Amino acid sequence: MKYRTDIDLWKSLKSGDLASFEYIYHANYKDLFYYGLKLSGKRDVTEDCIHDLFVQMWANREVINEVHSLKPYLLKCFRRRLFKMVSQGDVAVCDNPLGRNEHLLSRSAEDNIIEGESVYERKKIVLSAMKSLTKRQREAIHLRYFMGFDNKEICAVMNLQYQTIRNLICEGIKALRFEIEQPAASRYQS
Asked: Are residues 59 and 90 in the same domain?
């Protein structure tokens, strides 16, 4: 079933259309899952949080406000739910989920960008550089470059001001460039 807009899809869900609910679930599960893994580093917690989100969404479908852009809305709700679980002490968020889940990059947009003879080395360099970023910088860069969100959508998901998002991304890119160029410069000096 193909829906014209997120608004049409949302209206259909609110009216109790199970097919639209299933469509929303299947169309967004993968993005929610990888986003949750980036934040928590824990597969089971991420899956539980996604399922809880959709159960609550279905149960409260008649009273949920109108949504104009579905994916940012779902990510914001998911993020809030995950951090609520963390604040209640149910789970600890991993300090460096990217470092613990290097295999996730094999399914990301990064694989489409990084090609050539030294793919493995480049991935290693990028993963190492990502470790130097703050949690918020990693999250903002992930949303911007791996999920394709614009800055306004990232503001909605992360609940931050527009300029803060711009600063996080800009400073994160600068830090990545610095970290990536440092090892390259030292390799050529040998």
From this structure: yes
Tell me which DSSP letter residue 182 carries.
H
Is the pLDDT at 167 greater than 60? The verdict is: yes
Mean pLDDT in the chain? 78
* CATH, residue 72: 1.10.1740.10
Residue 190 is assigned to a structural domain of this protein: no
List the end-to-end C-alpha distance of the chain, in Å, as a whole number.
Answer: 59
82-91 confidence digits (pLDDT tens): 888 877 765 5
Whether 121 and 70 map to the same domain: the answer is no
Which tokens hold the place of 165? Answer: 């998002």
How many distinct structural domains can be found in the chain?
2
Q: Is 29 helix (H, G, I), strand (E, B) or coil?
A: helix
Domain holding 8, by residue range, is 1-95
Q: What is the pLDDT of residue 136?
A: 92
Q: According to the model, what pLDDT value does residue 6 have? A: 83
* Contacts of 29 by beta carbon, 8 Å cutoff, 6+ apart: 50
Please, are residues 48 and 88 in contact by the beta-carbon 8 Å criterion?
A: no
Find tokens 């963390």 and name the residue: 86
Per-residue CA distances from 75 to 12, 26, 39, 152 (Å): 20, 14, 12, 13
* CA distances from residue 112 to 59, 115, 119 in whole angstroms, order as listed: 39, 7, 11
